[in-house]
Amino acid sequence: MNLPNLITLSRIPTMFIIVALMYCSWWGAATLAFWLFIASAIGDWLDGYLARKRNLVSVFGKFMDALTDKVFVVGIMVAFVERLAAQYPNGYGSVIFLVMVLLTLCREFLISGMRMIAATQGVVVAAERGGKIKTVMQLIAVGFLLFVPALENDWARYLPFSITEYAGLLHKTGIGIFIVATVLTVSSGVSYASKYRRMFGDIAK
Question: Which of 71, 124, 105, 116 is nearest to 185 (CA)?
Answer without folding.
Answer: 105
